[in-house]
Design a protein that fits this description.
This protein is of the alpha+beta class. Helix content is 16%, strand content 25%.
Length: 779
């Protein structure tokens, strides 16, 4: 009975694999699966016949599969497993006595002998041995060390911030995410223990949009930490104890049209002209998801009514179209001199009639508009006259700005014009400024230079990260003020921040064509000499937890349009790799200005992008909520776009891991010193398995003079510390929720150093939601 049942099952499996394998062959893919289907059927036929050759034939099939798998991927365990796991399990089943004995014979003396198991047992053991050896290998790991040379003993950190404090999102206006503190260092970081834990009380609600996320990096000024929450509460807590000092709720409400419900940080300001201790002499500015900027007294949380309209700046002013929920600020504004400079996030791919991406500078005390720079109308920077409006849908900046007050420049990471995937009818200005880094004059708003990172962007490759500023020492000893600009497509631009000219070479490389007839694609795209761009995907990179979903992913890979990086979106559906999740995102990179090296978290996750004709877009559902994934309607455009991660039938990525790394690079030479898999599948699978696969992440790193880099971000709920020189992990702590925020560090007056991270989860990557602020220190 067992033999017959096994034969029936293998027949059905074989026919299915042969059918789908034949489809793969017709698409130009591997012959293996069609042949494997035949092998399963032949084994089944031999089993029906009670022929002992079934085991011998299957043994040959196991060995042939092993040879094929090693030829495709070498000793990569995560790639070998899906190719051979099911086949080895079937082999083990065929070795069981209830299968072998009916295939044997009975001697004249009546003794029953099972079929000879040695060939199949040998094939199974050889395959298991190859898998075991593969588990000891890491073919994706790049070993190496960053230089420990102190290139600049007295580097510029940006504006003057005490060593033990953290005044801006990246600590200073340079955005280095670097602290000169050394109490916690590579030798003792493994001893870190939790010092205190604070819960904000702002939790994800049932009616929230899916991409409700907690991404804040707190500020530390004096004895207080200042932070915001996803629903736009501003909070001050005691930096030594985590005890709440005050809380302010902006009452920004709920709106299902918001693509994101988040707050990355508040902005701190001290008025040098005000009397110390007076109301609003020190302020915290809170951006909200209903397009306001609110000024609060840093000591009490009271609204500073002298700012703008009774304490509130209304950012929708000057917009021709103002659909609720389509425009908001998720990142803290920058302050330079007497100006507070702010952009805004515009919903991707909702409509052709959305708010402008204008960048505006307001008087930091009064809220009066000083200048406006609209990338759709870049020369008119004088305050907009009454009755005029900014350019609809001009490229926006939703991330964090950096400032060099000595040069008089603010650096803007600029996004794309929506719809992101449709480039028809873009103006000359949009084509110039879209997806670029722009340097604006702090006093006038005029642009001084622009460095575009994608031409005619059809992929949502907006510049997502705060540019990082530091001074770089060239080989001839000359010191150059530099800018480091990470991008979604994996390039990291190292530029002279005075002019935008490259310090590491930028070249134009041929790019694929194939845009829809109404559009076009740029024939070349820029690439920086320092790049974490991935190798192009090929069929053997397709993955799954079994041979079945891997086969489905191989078929889908060949069905999609794909010619490498910058494959245009299509009606058929295109594979976009890196995807719009980005190799780097808003977490940016951290730099050591003394050693002039960087630490970052490159992530690799392919997306798909399919244009949908207007007449095929269904009416909006009553309970439909805003999201960047799924169907983006592009109201007013001839096409919507269906987009999301490239996933297999079981909801796991179709591309093989690793999906996430930590990496270190020398900013003077552009050399990548190391690249190590980062993160486990502990929180990605039904069983808490600590397998170090290298998982996706979103968030940013922080480094210290003690030679340690700190990072949460990965989709397992941990915060980790790494040796900056080697990238090796030194410490980790389990978080109660996703840690998709950038950590920071500070010291109290007694010299005690703390590391703080917010653990609140991230809706886009599905990590556990929470409301935790956690501090660690040495015992």
């Amino acid at each position: 009975m067992a033999v017959t049942s096994t034969a029936v099952i293998l027949t059905l499996i074989g026919l299915a694999i042969f059918g789908f394998g034949s489809q793969l062959v017709m698409l130009g893919g591997s012959f293996y699966y069609a042949l494997a289907g035949i092998a399963f059927v032949v084994t089944a036929v031999l089993l029906f016949q009670r022929n002992k050759a079934a085991l011998h034939f299957y043994a040959a099939f196991v060995l042939a599969t092993l040879i094929w798998a090693l030829w495709e991927v070498g000793f990569d365990w995560w790639q070998l497993g899906p190719r051979g796991g099911f086949i080895i399990l079937i082999g083990m089943w065929l070795l069981m006595p209830w299968i072998r004995k009916p295939l044997g014979f009975t001697s004249p003396t009546g003794i029953s002998y099972g079929a000879n198991a040695v060939p199949l047992l040998t094939a199974v053991l050889v395959s298991v041995g190859a898998a075991a050896f593969a588990m000891t290998q890491d073919p994706h790991d790049l070993q190496g060390d960053l230089s420990s040379e102190i290139v600049s003993a007295s580097p510029s950190y940006g504006n003057d911030v005490p060593d033990g404090e953290w005044h801006q999102y990246g600590r200073t206006s340079y955005g280095q995410r670097y602290s000169p503190l050394t109490q916690i260092n590579a030798d003792n970081v493994g001893q870190l223990k939790e010092a205190w834990r604070y819960r904000t009380g702002d939790v994800k609600l049932p009616n929230d949009v899916g991409e409700t996320t907690y991404q804040v990096t707190p500020l530390k000024v004096g004895n207080s930490l200042y932070l915001c929450t996803p629903h736009n509460w501003a909070i001050a807590v005691d930096a030594a104890t985590g005890k709440e000092k005050w809380k302010y709720d902006a009452n920004s409400g709920m709106n299902p049209d918001r693509q994101h419900q988040t707050c990355r940080g508040v902005t701190y300001y001290a008025d040098a002209a005000a009397q110390a201790g007076s109301l609003c002499a020190e302020r915290v500015y809170l951006p909200t998801s209903d397009a306001r900027l609110i000024a609060l007294d840093a000591a009490t949380g009271q609204v500073c009514t002298s700012f703008a309209d009774q304490g509130t700046l209304h950012l929708e002013t000057g917009m021709k179209y103002n659909p609720a929920g389509y425009y908001y600020s998720t990142s803290p504004p920058a302050i330079a001199g007497n100006k507070i400079i702010i952009g805004g996030a515009v919903n991707d791919n909702y409509s052709t009639q959305e708010q402008s991406g204008v960048i505006r500078a307001f008087d930091v005390n009064s809220g009066a508009l000083i200048w406006n720079w609209d990338s759709g109308n870049p020369t008119q920077t004088q305050p907009l006259a009454s009755g005029q409006t900014y350019t609809t849908n001009s490229p926006n900046s939703w991330s964090v700005f950096s400032v060099d007050e000595a040069l008089g420049l603010v650096y803007i990471p600029l996004g794309n014009q929506v719809p992101d995937q449709l480039g028809m009818g873009r103006s000359e200005n949009v084509e110039k400024y879209s997806s670029s880094i722009v340097a604006l004059d702090i006093n006038t708003g005029q642009d001084r230079w622009v460095r575009q990172t994608v031409h005619h962007d059809l992929w949502d490759m907006d510049v997502p990260a705060q540019p990082v500023l530091l001074d770089i020492t060239k080989k001839d000893g000359q010191t150059v003020p530099a800018l480091v600009g990470p991008t979604k497509q994996g390039d990291i631009y190292v530029l002279d921040r005075r002019s935008g000219e490259p310090l590491l070479a930028v070249t134009e490389e041929p790019a694929p064509g194939g845009a829809i007839p109404e559009d076009f694609s740029a024939p070349t795209q820029p690439t920086s000499a320092l790049s974490f761009k991935p190798d192009p995907l090929v069929e053997k990179n397709m993955w799954g937890v079994s041979m079945f979903d891997q086969l489905a992913c191989r078929i889908r890979f060949h069905q999609l349009n794909y010619k490498g990086r910058y494959t245009p979106p299509s009606l058929n559906g295109s594979l976009i790799y890196p995807g719009n999740f980005g190799t780097f995102n808003w977490g940016s990179v951290a730099v050591d200005p003394e050693r002039q090296v960087m630490f970052g978290m490159p992530t690799y996750l392919a997306f798909t992008s399919q244009l949908v004709p207007r007449d095929q877009i269904p009416p909006r559902g009553q309970d439909e909520k805003g999201s960047e994934q799924g169907l983006n309607r592009n109201d007013g455009a001839p096409y919507g776009v269906l987009m999301g991660p490239f996933l297999g039938p079981l909801g796991v990525p179709c591309q093989a891991p690793p999906w996430g790394y930590v990496a270190g690079a020398d900013l003077r030479t552009g050399d990548v010193a190391y690249k190590h898999k980062n993160g486990t599948v502990y929180d990605m699978t039904p069983l808490p398995l600590p397998f170090k696969v290298g998982v996706p992440g979103i968030g940013g790193p922080m480094i210290t003079k003690g030679g340690v880099a700190f990072l949460g971000a990965a989709v397992d709920n941990y915060v980790r510390a790494y040796n900056l020189t080697s990238g090796k992990q030194l410490w980790e702590a389990r978080l109660p929720a996703g840690g998709q925020a950038t950590p920071m560090t500070y010291a109290m007056d007694d010299g005690k150093q703390y590391v703080v991270i917010v653990a609140g989860g991230h809706g886009s990557v599905g990590t556990k939601a929470g409301d935790y602020v956690i501090a660690y220190t040495l015992p």
